[in-house]
Structure formats: C-alpha cells, structure tokens
C-alpha cells in the first residue's frame, strides 16, 4: 500500500454508491489513493477493524452527504462519521481532515452531521460529478498546503466538441455557438480567447483529394447497392439502466459492418436521430441515402441476452433477412459476429479471411469489464463533451482495464481520452499525457492490428504531440480496413486544416458530408472550414441545411444569426431572435450571459456592463471564474474605465499566476494571464507571456491553433499600446484562414488603440478583407 497519510477515505450511504464511485474514479484518475468499502455486507469484527484502521490513518475523510443520509438516523456510515469526528478532536486547530461533499440540494443548516463536519468547508458536486476545483483542493490538502480559496465549485471547463442539442436546455449559449461554428468567436472584443481544439478526429487516411463540389442541397445521395443504415436497436430489457448496453451492441454491430470493404455504412451520429422513429423505412433510406435498413432489439435478463435483427430493402419494404439469437451474456461477441456475417451474406458480399477474423474478434473475456467499457463510451455519446464527462469516462475505462488488463480496446480508449485532456490543456495536463503513453503502449502491445487500437494510436499522435504525419500513417492503415467510411474524408479534412492545406481540407469535408448527409458532426466541421475561408454564401447555405436537420434546435437558428453578422455585419437577426423569447426566459442565468455577449459583440458596452453587474460570475456554463473576470474586466477597459477593470479582476491575476507557475506550458492559462497583465498596465509581462504562448504553438506547427494564438498576441499588442505591431499583425492575420479568425464587422464595433488611424480604418473598410481566402 502507498503512503496511508496520502489516502482519502470515502464514506457514503449504500444508496449513494454510484455517486461515490464517480468521485473515487476521478480522484484515482489523478493518482490519489481512495479507500471506500464496496461491500453490501458491512459489519462484523473483520470489517470493523479494517474500517477503524483506515479512518485512523487516512489523510482526508470525505463524507458524502445527501437526502439519503439525512433520512437515515442509524446506519454504518454514521459509525464511520463518528470515528472520523473523534479523530478530528485529537488534531491541532486548523488542521484539515474532514472534507464534506454534498451530492444534492441538502442544506448545511440543519444537516444531521457531527459538529466537526459543520465547521468544515462543504463542497457541492451534484450527482457526484467531480470538478477540477475539488480535485485540486483534495491534492493541496493531502500535500499539506492548506485549502485554496474556493468561492464556488464551477463545473469543469468544457471542450468544444460539437454535440447535438438537448431538449429543454436553453439553446444558443455562447458555448453552443462555438460548438456549432467551431470557434466563430473572433480575437478582438469580449471573449477574445481561442476556442478549444475541435473534437477527437475519427480515423482517417490519405486518399487523393476529390474534386471540390458543392454541399448537396438534398439530404440524400444516390444510394449504392450495398449501402446500409443500422438504426438504433430497441431496448427490451426490464432494467431501467440497461439502455447503455443496447446502444453498445448497436454500435459494435455498426462497427463490424463498417469493416466490410464492399459496404457503405452510415455513421452512428446520423442514425441516432431515428431512435424510436415512426417514419417509414423508405423515407429513412431516402434521407440517409442508403438501400438497406437494419433494425433490431436487445433484451438482457440476468446472464441471458436476446438480440434480434431484420434487414429491409427500403424501396420495396422487402424483408431480406431476419434472425434472433438467444445466448448467455458471455456469448455477446459471438452474437455480434454472427449477425454481421449473416448481413454481409444476405447482401451477397464475400468476406475476406481478414474481414472474418476482425469481425469475430473477442475484445475481452470479462463481461463486467465490457459493461464498464460500454458505460464509458455511452457517457460521451449522450452528454456534452465536458471535462466532468471526460473524467467519468476515464474513471470507467480505468476500472475496465483494472478488471481485465488484456482489454486492448479499453486501453486504447483510455489513451485517446487522456491525450485529449492534454491537448485541451486540462489542469495537470502533463499527467494526462503520461497516462496516455502508458495506456497506448499497453494497447499496441496487446493488439497491434486491432482497428480500434490503430485509431487510438492515431489519436494519441494527433492530440498528444500534434504529430500529424504519424497520425495520418495510422489513419491510412485504418482506411485500408474501412475504405468506404466517410470518417476517412472527415478525419483527413481535420488534419489538413492543421497543416494549412485549407483547399484540400474543404474538398474532403464536403465529401464526408456527401457520403453521410445527416451527420451533424461532419456538417459542423465543414462549416468551421467555411468560416475560416470566409466562404459566406456556402456557410449560410450550410446553416440552412443544419436547420433543416434540426428544425426545433435554437442552437442552429442562433448560429445562423451569428453567421449572418460575420458575413454582412447585420445584427437584426440576432436581435430578433433574442426579442422573440419570453421575458422569463430572458432573465435566466444562461440567457443573461448570452445577452451580455451579444451586447458586447454589437459594441453596446453600457448594456453589457449592466448585464455583467446582474450576474458577476456565471455558475452554469463551466467557464472558470478567472476567465469570466478577465472577459468582464475587458468591458470596463473598453469603456475607458481602467479602475473598474482592475477592480473586476480582483485577486484572479494572482490565482492565475500561481497556476502558470505550476503549469508554465498551459496555453489557456498563459493567454488569459497575458490579457490580465495588459489591462493592469504590466506591459512587459503581458508581452513576455504573449511571446511565450506563440512560441509554444507557432503557426508553422499548427495552422489552426497557431493562428488563434497569433490573434491573441495581436490583441495584447493593441491593449498595451504597441500600435505598429498591432496594425502589422492585424493586416497579416486578416489574410490567414482560421475558424476564430479576424472579422472586419466585429473589429468595427470593438475598442482598439488604433481607432482613428487612417491605415486601420482603411483596413476595415476594404471589402477584400471579407472576401473568400480559398
């Protein structure tokens, strides 16, 4: 056992086990040892001795408080709480030992807890979802550094992977706009910082780039004879939480079929819109551009599983094939392989020995590990791609490989997610890369020819090192196994953007959209490239296509309004959309934040500052408080109130300086701190930081993100009064493609030290500076 004084003891009610597991998994993911009893049979001398010993020697005691603990006056967790309380009385005053965590709305006042719990600082983690602030606090306390200031526990900062909108959630928040247009927020003006990198690329290869063609106006391409869509399987299980298993079977079958070279298989993203659909098969096939539809169901009961499937020729509604499989749960991989092979046979497709072997492979012998793997995959399939979701996914994948160290696919997924955390500069980013290295080495050693491992290795090179050449090598290998997959073209497009090959990237993103016309991810990535190239007519057409796919989605409507502003400078569409919402909606925290950003974008600083005062620090969007403080301080700075800007920054610059000292290569920290130092009047430090982050990621290394950071540096030049440097960079960068690129309509409405300079005004009024770049 490791140093017991560095371990965390987690105490919880049996009903709160799921939340406790999430907390434990996140802490363990950051190398923190966690003790908590998963046994349903608590009690007895052996248990009593073990628990007493752990509570006596642990570094921190974390009680999980909830409505459940409030309702139970007698329980084993209360004995644990008493033991911890007794130990706390032996400690010096001010010694941090008890760290209460509340997972629901249970108030501190009146809580049925020992007095030592009431005196401690409470942390709220709804549903047990971890935050970076909480994990950092635990680490500091275990290291004996004392508690850092924690005014609140904001959710972890989201990554910018595009995700489908969810019903009932206010759409068109700023984060949603970034997700839809992949970083249309430009460098100048409020919220100037680069958006995080785009989502994990699907495996790709490097086929010859197809000739450019327009995005098809109709949703369906002409179906090939052997094109198929596997619509979501129906969950027939009685267990309420078994939907992840049904979706996992569906995804595995879809993946198996994609391995058959002669088939064109529509992606999971496109088909998920047809869950529980009542549309006729013929209509579905027309919308997806396929000849065949596979539908099915899954029923899981104990250690038994039934999977049914039927293949339909959509144009004639002919049932080409149907079969049901009743097996033990341990035979689930055999079911998937047999079903896939029979579908191929029904479509008169001959399988090569290599294809048969790939389809028949069994990724794990451990059903429990497979369950955890499916749950991990389900998290990002169903939720926004936030740090919190990623941490839960990483924790589940770690549990899966702990149960089965030979589970190569789980190791690969773990490597990909950790590399993604490094790429997005999550807190303690170097630890993510170290974990990714260990995981990918295990995966490759176990199954070097497995398609999922090959894809994970490409992703590791892409996100861990921005080594696009080595990433492409892996995607090429995968493309030989899946030559008809649209992800080949989409992934190649993502790589080519970062290599500065914009025209080739555009051609390949168009091709991906043609092959998979209902895929929202492909369309949004295509739209980001159109923004980078200032191809406004195509962009507006693509937005209308997005609205046709998502007719009730406020994100889609809002993104069209923003795209119209970037293309023409018109704010009428955005104003009309905001005005159309009822007053009670306009007063919600999410929409107040949106109205603030829109007012700033229009140059209405008085209204933006008024709204900022209503909501000084927003809690619902996952943006760190120091970033919000910098953004709001800029409003005061731009309005000529430097004292107000400094007051708004408060102690956030000091906090951010500490973070930079700990992680000197974290680009998110560096860019925000440079802006803060500039507004504080610390010119040389601001310039030093700006040069630092540009040197860490120059445009020569990454044309996409490098341009973003160059734009940030130009902003710093402007803020500190380096007018000639700012003007030179603005002039250059207006000719550089970037989804977050400079836009003359935004700059015209924003503050600049160059305002009134004839050269600057001529730059903004030159129509060539809003014409297509490629």
From TrEMBL:
GO terms for biological process: signal transduction. Residues 197-223 are annotated as: Disordered. Residues 5-145 form the TIR domain. Signal peptide: none annotated. It comes from the Bacteria. Residues 197-208 have a biased composition (Low complexity). Residues 209-220 have a biased composition (Pro residues). InterPro entries: TIR_dom (IPR000157), Toll_tir_struct_dom_sf (IPR035897), TPR-like_helical_dom_sf (IPR011990), TPR_rpt (IPR019734). Keywords: Membrane, Transmembrane, Transmembrane helix. The chain crosses the membrane at residues 172-191. PANTHER family: BLL7664 PROTEIN, CELL DIVISION CYCLE 16,23,27. This is TIR domain-containing protein.
């Amino acid at each position: 056992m490791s140093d017991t004084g560095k371990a965390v003891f987690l105490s919880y009610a049996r009903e709160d086990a799921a939340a406790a597991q999430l907390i434990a998994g996140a802490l363990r993911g950051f190398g923190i040892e966690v003790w908590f009893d998963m046994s349903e049979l608590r009690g007895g001398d052996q248990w009593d001795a073990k628990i007493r010993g752990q509570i006596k020697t642990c570094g921190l005691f974390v009680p999980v408080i909830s409505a459940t603990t409030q309702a139970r006056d007698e329980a084993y967790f209360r004995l644990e709480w008493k033991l911890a309380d007794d130990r706390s009385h032996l400690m010096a005053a001010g010694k941090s030992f008890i760290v209460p965590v509340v997972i629901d709305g249970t108030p501190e006042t009146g809580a049925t807890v020992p007095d030592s719990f009431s005196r401690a600082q409470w942390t709220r983690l709804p549903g047990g979802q971890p935050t970076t602030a909480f994990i950092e606090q635990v680490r500091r306390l275990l290291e004996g550094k004392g508690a850092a200031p924690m005014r609140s526990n904001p959710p972890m900062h989201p990554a910018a992977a595009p995700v489908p909108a969810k019903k009932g959630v206010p759409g068109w928040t700023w984060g949603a706009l970034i997700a839809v247009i992949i970083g249309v927020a430009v460098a100048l003006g409020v919220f100037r910082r680069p958006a995080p990198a785009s989502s994990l690329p699907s495996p790709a290869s490097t086929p010859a780039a197809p000739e450019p063609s327009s995005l098809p106006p109709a949703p369906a391409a002409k179906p090939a004879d052997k094109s198929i869509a596997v619509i979501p399987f129906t969950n027939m299980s009685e267990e309420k939480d078994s939907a992840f298993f049904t979706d996992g079977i569906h995804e595995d079958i879809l993946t198996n079929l994609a391995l058959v070279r002669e088939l064109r298989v529509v992606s999971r993203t496109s088909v998920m819109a047809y869950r529980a659909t009542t549309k006729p098969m013929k209509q579905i096939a027309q919308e997806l551009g396929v000849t065949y539809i596979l539908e099915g169901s899954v029923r899981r009961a104990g250690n038994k599983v039934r999977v049914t499937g039927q293949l339909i020729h959509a144009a004639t509604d002919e049932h080409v094939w149907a079969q049901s499989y009743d097996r033990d749960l341990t035979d689930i991989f055999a079911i998937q392989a047999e079903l896939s092979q029979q579908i191929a046979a029904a479509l008169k497709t001959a399988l090569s020995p290599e294809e048969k072997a790939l389809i028949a492979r069994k990724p794990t012998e451990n059903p429990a590990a497979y369950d955890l793997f499916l749950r991990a995959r389900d998290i990002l399939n169903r939720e926004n791609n936030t740090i919190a979701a990623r941490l839960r996914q990483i924790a589940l994948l770690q549990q899966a490989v702990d149960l089965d160290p030979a589970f190569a696919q789980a190791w690969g997924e773990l490597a990909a997610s950790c590399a993604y955390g490094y790429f997005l500069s999550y807190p303690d980013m170097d630890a993510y890369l170290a974990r990714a290295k260990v995981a990918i080495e295990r995966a490759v050693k176990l199954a070097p020819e497995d398609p999922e491992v090959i894809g994970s290795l490409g992703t590791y090179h892409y996100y861990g090192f921005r080594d696009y050449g080595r990433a492409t090598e892996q995607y090429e290998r995968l493309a030989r196994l899946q030559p008809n997959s649209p992800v080949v073209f989409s992934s190649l497009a993502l790589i080519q953007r970062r290599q500065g090959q914009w025209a080739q990237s555009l051609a390949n993103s168009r091709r991906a959209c043609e092959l998979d016309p209902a895929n929202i991810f492909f369309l949004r990535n295509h739209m980001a490239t159109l923004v980078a190239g200032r191809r406004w007519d195509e962009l507006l057409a693509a937005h209308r296509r997005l609205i046709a796919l998502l007719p009730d989605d406020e994100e889609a409507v809002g993104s069209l309004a923003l795209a119209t502003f970037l293309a023409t400078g018109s704010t009428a569409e955005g104003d009309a959309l905001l005005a159309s919402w009822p007053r009670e909606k306009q007063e919600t925290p999410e929409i107040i934040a949106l109205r603030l950003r829109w007012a700033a974008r229009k140059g209405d600083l008085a209204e933006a500052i008024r709204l900022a005062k209503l909501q000084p620090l927003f809690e619902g969007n996952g943006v760190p408080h120091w970033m919000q403080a910098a953004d709001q301080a800029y409003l005061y700075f731009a309005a000529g109130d430097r004292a107000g800007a400094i007051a708004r920054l408060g102690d956030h610059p000091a906090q951010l300086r500490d973070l930079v000292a700990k992680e000197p290569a974290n680009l998110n920290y560096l860019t925000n701190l440079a802006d803060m130092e500039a507004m504080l009047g610390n010119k040389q430090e601001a310039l030093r930081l700006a040069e630092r982050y540009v040197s860490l990621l120059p445009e020569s290394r990454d044309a996409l993100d490098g341009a973003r950071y160059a734009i940030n540096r130009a902003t710093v030049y402007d803020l500190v009064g380096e007018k000639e440097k700012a003007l030179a960079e603005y002039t250059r960068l207006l000719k550089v493609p970037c989804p977050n690129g400079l836009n003359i309509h935004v700059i015209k409405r924003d503050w600049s030290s160059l305002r009134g300079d004839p050269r600057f005004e001529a730059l903004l009024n030159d129509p060539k500076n809003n014409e297509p770049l490629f």
